[in-house]
Amino acid sequence: SLGDGGPGLYEPIHGSAPDIAGRATANPIGAIAAASMLLRMSLNLRAEADALDHAIDATLAEGVTTPDLGGAASTSDVGRAIEAHILASPITADCTTRA
Questions:
Q1: For an engineered disulfide with 40, which of 33, 49, 56, 78 has Cβ 3.0 to 4.6 Å away?
Q2: CA 47 vs CA 25, 41, 67, 82: distances in Å
Q3: pTM
Q4: What is the CA radius of gyration of the chain?
Q5: Phi-psi region of 28 (alpha: psi -120 to 50; beta: other; left: phi over 0)
Q6: Which helix (H) or strand (E) holds 6?
Q7: For residues 96 and 47, what is the distance between their CA atoms, to the nearest angstrom?
Q8: What is the full per-residue pLDDT of the chain (99 aa) written as tens digits?
């Protein structure tokens, strides 16, 4: 949530999902999208937020989804697919070149 002039709180709102605990089927996209909002709205890192958003969109376009979205991928599978897109993005390539 964002208040006028106050700090933002960024979190997925889907709950803890105790019914799927330990099954590796939780969808990590909400948490990753919340990180994108943090980057964009509080840290003013628009390019980095765009890289996260693009990575999420590309992963979904490839059909790498957890069971709640009709797929068969695990939480880790989705996270790794998003990570691969982040690492391939121009903003990440630029950061690793400077490091």
A1: 49
A2: 29, 12, 30, 16
A3: 0.85
A4: 15
A5: alpha
A6: none
A7: 15
A8: 677 777 788 888 777 788 888 999 999 999 999 999 999 999 999 999 999 999 999 999 999 999 999 999 999 999 999 999 999 988 765 655 544
Torsion-angle region of 63 (φ positive above 0: left; ψ -120 to 50: alpha; else: beta): left
Q: How far is CA 18 from CA 10, 26, 75, in A?
A: 21, 10, 15
Contact 71, 28 (CB under 8 A): no
Is-contact 24 76, C-beta < 8 A?
yes
Question: Cα(31)–Cα(16) distance, rounded to whole angstroms?
Answer: 12
